[in-house]
Design brief:
464 residues; alpha/beta; Rossmann fold; Hypothetical protein af1432; 3 domains
Length: 464
């Protein structure tokens, strides 16, 4: 697949072009076409395929307003990536959003490096389906060292916290399994049906259930940082959770496939794409959500490198989901955390031909995987320590000179339990060297009195 030409329509009205802007666009490999009137812009939009529109209103606020007004009058501009430059451009983001689907409002003067990344990201998002898509290892060590692309993005403290939380979820399967499914599903008219479908998916294949939770957490953080649109965040959360939902009716031998290992295996990708399309049809028919269905179909097309005839928002959401899907499958395809898989994921994200063609998204995914790599040993060690404490607690009650069974209601201060209390909700473990007091007994009554399996509990005879 041949990459489309990077054309930028530099529109500055009657003012002279700014050298700084021309240099910025040139550094991002854009071919610049200058325009001074609306008719100039329209003719260029007809000639080129979705070029980047750079509306320069930096001369004055009146120029900013003029560019916005003129942009809103051009129908062909709606599907093009657009950038507004001006002293107060960021304050006009809402107005710009009503003119075009993919946009950025950049206060000018600006930091060239950051502005360049934003501009390139906006253009890449619109042309994602036309860009070459290559997955898996991009080559040997020499290929990586020569072609690796660093995706470094600045994050504020709140965004760093989000990335850290997503990294923790990605790093520990137990953490994501323990969190209730309801936390991962936003409000929706069909939420009970969605919840039922996700629970059935979890019952059919526990790995797919945990995978959906982790993917939802990673993709929603990526969307929050890069987009911040609440309605799109809900779409991404639902699409991530339901991406593999067709496994509950069809099953799939490729459900656990590692996308970092199938770069040359077209059949495996075709099977996985078919699974996604079946999920999209399930969502459309059973859950009546057209937007989620279209988003999942877009993920399927992006996976195969096919063109996606959808709005920018749908394509961008699909890129978020495909990136998160790639990340989690690389790290967890074997059913356990795989450090080598995480390494393959990071190598792809930093390669010259990554899974998604959006620098900002790639930067977020790279940071999340990096957090997970750091967090996983810590989480594993904590879980091991907790397990050892539990094992010790289960053996301690057996120490003593015999045991006696009494009713839960007859427990008294000074007694010691010789066995865990069995309830319908699981075992209540109290170490055998811990003497019961009135407060602990009251809590045991609350926990076990109603839902105990049987009416008796075992206590150490010497403690009665």
């Amino acid at each position: 697949m041949t990459a489309p030409l990077k054309i930028a329509v530099y529109w500055r009205g009657s003012n002279s072009p700014l050298t700084e802007v021309l240099q910025l666009l040139t550094e991002q490999k854009f071919r610049i076409r200058e325009a001074s009137t609306v008719s100039d812009v329209v003719s260029l939009l007809v000639r080129y395929n979705k070029p980047l529109i750079v509306a320069d209103g930096s001369a004055s606020e009146a120029e900013e307003n003029a560019r916005l007004l003129e942009l809103s009058s051009i129908d062909d501009a709606k599907k093009c990536p657009a950038v507004l430059l001006g002293a107060s451009a960021s304050s006009k983001a809402d107005q710009l959003a009503s003119c075009v689907e993919a946009f950025a409002a950049i206060d000018f003067p600006c930091e060239p490096a950051n502005a360049g990344k934003i501009i390139n990201s906006i253009w890449s998002s619109v042309h994602a389906a036309e860009l070459p898509l290559v997955m898996g290892r991009p080559g040997g060590r020499k290929g990586i060292s020569r072609k690796r692309v660093e995706h470094s993005i600045p994050l504020n403290n709140e965004q760093k916290q989000l990335v850290s939380e997503a990294g923790n979820v990605l790093a520990g399967a137990a953490i994501s399994q323990q969190r209730p499914i309801e936390e991962f599903i936003p409000n929706h008219p069909y939420k009970p049906f969605i919840l039922d479908a996700v629970k059935r998916m979890d019952q059919e294949d526990e790995w797919i259930g945990g995978h959906g939770k982790r993917t939802s957490a990673v993709s929603s953080v990526a969307s929050t940082i890069t987009v911040g649109d609440e309605s799109r965040l809900e779409n991404i959360q639902l699409s991530s959770m339901l991406l593999n939902v067709s496994t509950i009716t069809n099953g799939s031998p490729c459900a656990h496939v590692d996308l970092t290992r199938v770069s040359a295996d077209r059949d495996e990708k075709q099977k996985l794409a078919a699974l996604y399309r079946a999920s999209a049809e399930f969502v459309r028919q059973e859950l009546k959500d057209d937007r989620v269905s279209r988003t999942i179909n877009a993920v399927s097309s992006l996976l195969l490198g096919q063109p996606v005839d959808e709005k920018f928002a749908i394509v961008n959401d699909a890129q978020c989901i495909l990136g998160a899907e790639f990340v989690d499958r690389g790290c967890w395809a074997d059913g356990v955390w795989n450090p080598r898989g995480a390494n393959r994921v990071i190598r792809n994200l930093r390669s010259s031909q990554p899974i998604v063609n959006d620098d900002i998204l790639l930067g977020v995914f790279t940071k999340i995987v990096g957090e997970a790599v750091i967090a996983n040993p810590r989480i594993t060690n904590t879980q091991f320590t907790n397990r050892k404490i539990l094992e010790q607690a289960l053996t301690l009650p057996k120490i003593g000179d015999g045991e006696t069974y009494v009713d839960v209601s007859d427990l008294a201060p000074g007694m010691k339990l010789s066995q865990p209390i069995k309830t319908l909700d699981g075992l209540i473990v109290v170490p055998g060297n811990l003497t019961l007091d009135s407060d602990l007994i009251r809590r045991l009554w609350q926990l076990a009195g109603v839902r105990a399996v049987g009416t008796k509990v075992a206590v150490i005879t010497d403690s009665i």
